[in-house]
Design a protein that fits this description.
Blueprint: H1 3-20, E1 38-49, E2 59-64, E3 73-76, E4 81-87, E5 95-98, E6 122-127, E7 133-139, H2 143-148, E8 152-158, E9 167-176, H3 191-195, E10 203-206, E11 214-218, E12 221-228, E13 235-239, E14 244-249, E15 252-257, E16 263-265, E17 270-276, E18 284-289, E19 297-308, E20 335-343, E21 351-354, E22 357-360, H4 361-366, E23 371-373, E24 376-377, E25 387-389, E26 394-401, E27 407-411, E28 416-421, E29 431-432, E30 434-437, E31 442-448, E32 453-459, H5 462-466, E33 470-475
Parallel strand pairs: 1-4, 3-8, 9-12, 11-19, 20-26, 21-24, 25-33
Antiparallel strand pairs: 1-2, 4-6, 5-7, 7-8, 9-10, 12-17, 13-16, 13-18, 14-15, 14-17, 18-19, 20-23, 21-22, 26-31, 27-30, 27-32, 28-29, 28-31, 32-33
Bound molecules: CU-O-CU linkage and copper (II) ion (CU).
Residues 407, 459, 461, 464, 469 line the site of copper (II) ion.
C-alpha cells in the first residue's frame, strides 16, 4: 500500500478506534521517554475495582497501579528496560516476567532468585527482553493468592518490523471466585480445588471487566493477543463465522495456521490471533468458550458497526511475524529427563517424597500437599534441584501426566520446542514456555539450557504448584 494511504487509514482508525472500542485499554505512562530504554514504575497495593459491574459493589483486589490487570508494559526487543516495583501491601511480593528469557537474578522468584520485596520497599528490575511478542508479569510470592487477587499485568515486546494491522488488542482473560457481594472468596487453600482442577472462578473477565461486545468494523484486520491470567481456568474460544489465524504462541511467532477446533489456551499461555473482520455490517457474532463441557458459554461477541471500515485487510494473506532467535536443540545427544506428573483426586499415587521423608498421600493431603513431580512433593522455593545440566546442553523433557486433571507446565528462563504431544498435533514444532497436558496426556519438549541459574519449573494451575507440583532445574 502506498504510504499516503497507510497514513490516511491510520488516521481513520484512531478516530473511530477510540470512540467505538468498548473493551477499554489504557496504556501505561512511559516515564523516561528516552527512545530506546523503557522505564516504568509499578506500585502494588490493595484497591477496590469495579469488576462485576453495577449493581454489584466494587471488589477489593490486590493490584499494580490500582488496576487489574496492571498497566500494559511495552518494551523493545533487545533494548534494556527498567521496572521499579514498590510494595504497599502488608505481605512481601516479587515480580516474575513470565516468558521473558532474561538473566536469573531478575526472574522474580522469592528465595530462589531474590529476597521478597517487603512492605514499603522498592526493588529495581533491569533486563533486556530478547524476544518480541506477548508476555505478562505477575507476582511470584504466595502466588496462588496474590495472582488470584489480581497482581499481574500484560507485556508487549514490540517487533522492530511487523506486518501492519488496523488494531492491536490485548485480552487478559481471568476468572474470579466472588461471593454475593462481589468480594473475593479467600479459600485459596480449599483442598477440593487444590486436589482437582484448581481454583475455578464464577466470574470471567476480559481486561478486568465483565466482557462487553467488542465493537468492530467490517474490513478491519485485528491482531488479538490473548493472555490467560487465570489461576486454573482453561479457555477454548470459538469465533463464530470468523477465520481464526494463530500467529504466535507464548510470544513466539510461527507459520500462521488455522486451528482445527477451538483456540485452547491454558493458564499462563499466550496466543496471538490474526482476525479479519469479514462479517456483515450491523451484525453480531458470538465468541464462545467451551473448554469445560458442563459450561459452554458466550464469552463475548463481535459487534459490527453499520458502516464499513478501511477494508485494508481484505484480499491479502497475512505473511506472519518475524521470528525470534532461539537456539535449536541438538537431538543427537540430549539430556533425557522423564517428568512424571502424579497425584490429586482419582490419582494412583500412593506415597511420595516430601523433604527428607517418604509420606503416604493421605498424610500429605492433611498437610495441603497433593501433587508430585517424579514422586517428589515440593516443599517450596528452597528445594534442591530436580536435576542439573551443563550450560549449552540440549535437554529433552518427557512429560507423562498420570493424573485425572490438566497441568500447564511452565519452565522459567527458557522456551522449549514441542517435539510431540499425544493429543494436540498443532502444538508440535512450536516454541512454548508453558505446555498444557490434559488428563493422561504425554508430550516431549526440547530446549538448549543456555541460561545459567536455578530456574523454577512448575504447574501454572497455581494451587497445584502450591500443593507440591513444583521443582528447580539448575543450569551450571
Ligand atoms: Cu508465570 Cu513461575 O510463573
Ligand atoms: Cu497442575
Amino acid at each position: 500500500m502506498p504510504n499516503e494511504d497507510r497514513l490516511r487509514s491510520r488516521r481513520n482508525f484512531i478516530k473511530y478506534g477510540s470512540a467505538a472500542m468498548l473493551v477499554p485499554w489504557v496504556p501505561a505512562p512511559v516515564l523516561a521517554a528516552a527512545d530506546e530504554n523503557r522505564k516504568y514504575r509499578l506500585t502494588a497495593s490493595s484497591t477496590s475495582i469495579q469488576l462485576a459491574g453495577v449493581p454489584f459493589p466494587k471488589t477489593e483486589t490486590w493490584s499494580f497501579d490500582r488496576q487489574s490487570p496492571g498497566p500494559l508494559l511495552r518494551f523493545r526487543q533487545g533494548q534494556p528496560a527498567t521496572v521499579e516495583v514498590t510494595n504497599r501491601l502488608a505481605q512481601g511480593i516479587t515480580v516474575h516476567w513470565h516468558g521473558l528469557r532474561i538473566a536469573n537474578p531478575m526472574d522474580g522468584v522469592p528465595i530462589l532468585t531474590q529476597p521478597p520485596i517487603a512492605e514499603g520497599e522498592t526493588f529495581q528490575y533491569r533486563f533486556t527482553p530478547p524476544d518480541a511478542g506477548t508476555f505478562w508479569y505477575h507476582s511470584h510470592m504466595n502466588t496462588a493468592e496474590q495472582v488470584g487477587r489480581g497482581l499481574y499485568g500484560p507485556i508487549i515486546v514490540e517487533e522492530r518490523d511487523a506486518p501492519p494491522v488496523d488494531r492491536d488488542l490485548v485480552w487478559v482473560l481471568d476468572d474470579w471466585k466472588l461471593d454475593q457481594k462481589a468480594q473475593i472468596i479467600s479459600d485459596f487453600d480449599n483442598p477440593r480445588d487444590l486436589a482437582r482442577a484448581g481454583r475455578l472462578g464464577n466470574t470471567v473477565t476480559i481486561n478486568g471487566k465483565i466482557p462487553q461486545a467488542l465493537r468492530v468494523m467490517a474490513g478491519e484486520r485485528i491482531r488479538l493477543r490473548l493472555i490467560n491470567a487465570a489461576n486454573a481456568r482453561v479457555f477454548a474460544l470459538r469465533f463464530q463465522r470468523h477465520r481464526t489465524l494463530v500467529i504466535a504462541r507464548d510470544g513466539q511467532p510461527h507459520d500462521p495456521y488455522e486451528p482445527g477446533g477451538p483456540v485452547v489456551i491454558g493458564p499462563a499461555q499466550r496466543i496471538d490471533l490474526m482476525l479479519d473482520m469479514t462479517g456483515e455490517p450491523g451484525q453480531r457474532y458470538s465468541v464462545l468458550d467451551a473448554y469445560y463441557p458442563q459450561s459452554p458459554a458466550q464469552l463475548t461477541s463481535l459487534a459490527y458497526a453499520s458502516e464499513t471500515g478501511p477494508r485494508k485487510a481484505r484480499g491479502e494473506e497475512y505473511p506472519g511475524l518475524p521470528r525470534n532467535r532461539i537456539p535449536e536443540p541438538d537431538l543427537g545427544d540430549p539430556l533425557l529427563q522423564r517428568i512424571e506428573l502424579a497425584g490429586g483426586d482419582l490419582g494412583q499415587l500412593g506415597n511420595a517424597q516430601f523433604g527428607d521423608q517418604r509420606l503416604e498421600m493421605t498424610r500429605l493431603y492433611l498437610l495441603g500437599k497433593m501433587w508430585a513431580i517424579n514422586e517428589i512433593v515440593s516443599t517450596g522455593y528452597a528445594d534442591p534441584p530436580l536435576f542439573s545440566v551443563r550450560r549449552g546442553r540440549t535437554v529433552v523433557l518427557d512429560f507423562r501426566n498420570h493424573s485425572a486433571w490438566p497441568h500447564p507446565m511452565h519452565l522459567h528462563g527458557h522456551h522449549f520446542k514441542v517435539l510431540e504431544h499425544s493429543r494436540d498435533r498443532e502444538v508440535t514444532g512450536k516454541w512454548l514456555d508453558t505446555v498444557l497436558l490434559g488428563p493422561e496426556e504425554s508430550a516431549r519438549v526440547a530446549f538448549v539450557a543456555d541460561n545459567p541459574g536455578d530456574w523454577l519449573f512448575h504447574c501454572h494451575i497455581l494451587g497445584h504448584a502450591r500443593a507440591g507440583m513444583m521443582a528447580v532445574i539448575r543450569v551450571t
